[in-house]
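User: Run a structure prediction on this.
Assistant: Running it now.
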Amino acid sequence: MSPDRRKHRGAHPEDARLFDDARLSALRAATAEMSWLLGRGYQPKSALKLVGDRHNLRERQRLAVARAACSDESRERRRARRVEAQGVRGSELVVDGFNLVITL
């Protein structure tokens, strides 16, 4: 296995502009619309194309919307599995943070 030679760690140079206050309302609307479409059975790729084109989103913005959106059913499944801190107090807790780390 060769060492990781990527040099793109950290924020992209255009992120400050792509995710500034002026674009947040469009990104929020796109995320809500994509979530609505996913809840009605649309495929993620099709839903993202539709809302991305409608809101004239760039590729990085589309990626952020895709990662933030989910159907109501998916959100409820996650919520049902959530455990409050008191529920695990005194127990051994193992957290798999790999996917979280690679997302950052």
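Residues 15-80 form one domain.
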